[in-house]
Specification:
With about 70 residues, this protein is mainly alpha-helical. Helix 1 crosses helix 2. The longest helix has 11 residues. The chain has one domain. It has three helices and no strands.
Length: about 70
């Protein structure tokens, strides 16, 4: 299974379409050519672990430009 190049973005941006909150997970998924559901699942599971997940998401929300 290859990655479709037309679905892959060359820069990391927050997406306007397909977003649930800010489009950060969709942007990461499209940039690296992986399923959006996988990125969202990894993020939600990571919330069970101690760490700055909310801060990282908030920083990406602020720092990443919109599509």
């Amino acid at each position: 299974m290859g990655i479709r190049k037309d679905m892959r973005s060359t820069t990391l941006t927050r997406q306007r379409q397909g977003k649930l909150i800010a489009g950060v997970c969709v942007g990461i998924a499209r940039r690296y050519g992986i399923p959006t559901a996988l990125v969202r699942t990894v993020f939600v599971v990571s919330l069970l672990l101690p760490g700055p997940q909310f801060l990282l998401y908030g920083a990406l929300w602020i720092l990443l430009p919109k599509e």
